[in-house]
Amino acid sequence: MTKYSTDKRPFSSPLLTPTCNDRLIWEICLARYYLPALTVAEQIGLVTFLARSPSTVEEVEAGLSLGLRGAEVLLGLVSALGLLVQRQGRFHLTDEARTYMFTDPCPSNYDGVLLGNIFHSWDRATCLQLAKRCFEILPPSGRIFLHEVLLNDTKDGPLVAAAFSIVVFQMGGRQYTARELDENLREAGFTDVMVNPTYSYYSLVSVRKPVNV
């Protein structure tokens, strides 16, 4: 397996706004604001509820047994994240929300699937389910590409990867090691796992669907 970068670069105090251009550090800084809203929305079934039928604030309040003020605040937060849009008094899921929650069927007739910053949002079982869905729609020799920040084999670094893993843990996910992704993807049926560093702390993990399946 190809080695990947374990570059250990300093970053600013968590009490201050980052001043560098590293996108990952910005995501870590901002995640403390948006992850709690997404976690609540997922745990109480808001996305599933709206996927069935666009609803008013009052309908969300009644359907999910929320107080009116609680429904207003949560809908406002999730809308601010670009996952909901209000039309004629009803809240609709945006395409981003449907993609995020995997409510749409996987597209077919493609030779490859790119999943950037997806696996780290989910537990191993959900990642395996997603990998199997990709395996089903890919043709023989089709590839899946994962763009992720990888932990080292001992799971104690690099520092940014470990910090990011703590952040996404709030919503049921975590950063994975290359070995863990290798095992997950092979269990889904893929082979020829390759890992290559891309930029910053990111690596590209690619696997291939066997020809004889």
Describe this structure as you would to a colleague.
The chain is of the alpha+beta class. The chain folds into 2 domains: 23-100, Orthogonal Bundle (Arc Repressor Mutant, subunit A); 112-208, Vaccinia Virus protein VP39 (Rossmann fold, 3-Layer(aba) Sandwich), CATH 3.40.50.150. 41% of the residues lie in helices and 16% in strands. It has 8 helices and 6 strands. The protein has helices at residues 23-43, 46-52, 57-63, 68-80, 95-100, 124-137, 159-168, 178-187, and strands at 84-87, 90-93, 112-116, 143-149, 191-197, 202-208. The strands form 2 sheets. A 4-stranded mixed β-sheet has the order 3-4-6-5, with helices on one face. A hairpin with a 2-residue loop joins strand 1 and strand 2. Helix 1 (23-43) runs parallel beside helix 7 (159-168) and helix 3 (57-63) crosses helix 4. It is globular. The chain starts with 22 loop residues before the first helix and ends in a 5-residue tail after the last strand. The relative contact order is 0.16.
Mean residue pLDDT: 80
Named CATH architecture of the largest domain? 3-Layer(aba) Sandwich
Number of strands: 6
Q: What is the N-to-C order of secondary-structure elements (H for helix, E for strand)? A: HHHHEEHEHEHHEE
Work out the oligomeric state of the chains in this entry: single chain
What fraction of the residues are assigned to beta strands by DSSP?
A: 15-25%
CATH topology of the largest domain: Rossmann fold
Task: Kindly provide the name of the CATH class of the largest domain.
Answer: Alpha Beta
CATH homologous superfamily of the largest domain?
Vaccinia Virus protein VP39
Count every helix, treating DSSP H or I runs of 4 or more residues as helices: 8
